[in-house]
Design a protein that fits this description.
The chain is mainly beta and 92 residues long. It contains no helices and nine strands. The protein has a five-stranded mixed barrel with strand order 1-2-3-9-6. Strands 4-5 form a two-stranded antiparallel ribbon. It starts with a strand and ends with a strand.
Length: 92
């Protein structure tokens, strides 16, 4: 499902991996914090760019195509403190 997200955080991790977080906007409910992930691979820096322009950056509004949400996935025995979300493709 296509949803608009206001990007609040972009963090560089190891190698080219990045962590992106933001808030869903629109809809009838309260804003929800999301952390987009690709289904079968990590997010990497080139994913942030379109035609040499940084599109996914702080305070940008992007439209993402989300798959169903997985809540509270365990990581090394600890529950995550946020909602994990998969995305299958990106539309700008």
């Amino acid at each position: 499902m296509l949803l608009e997200v206001v990007i609040t955080d972009v963090t560089r991790m190891v190698e080219q991996r990045v962590c992106v977080a933001g808030y869903l906007i629109g809809g009838n409910g309260p804003f929800a914090c999301v952390r987009p992930e690709l289904k079968f691979q990590p997010l990497v820096e080139p994913w942030l760019w379109v035609r040499a322009v940084p599109v996914v950056r702080q305070l940008a509004v992007v439209e993402l195509n989300f798959l169903p949400i997985r809540v509270g996935r365990c990581n090394a025995g600890f529950r995550t403190s946020h909602t994990d979300t998969d995305l299958s493709e990106v539309a700008f």
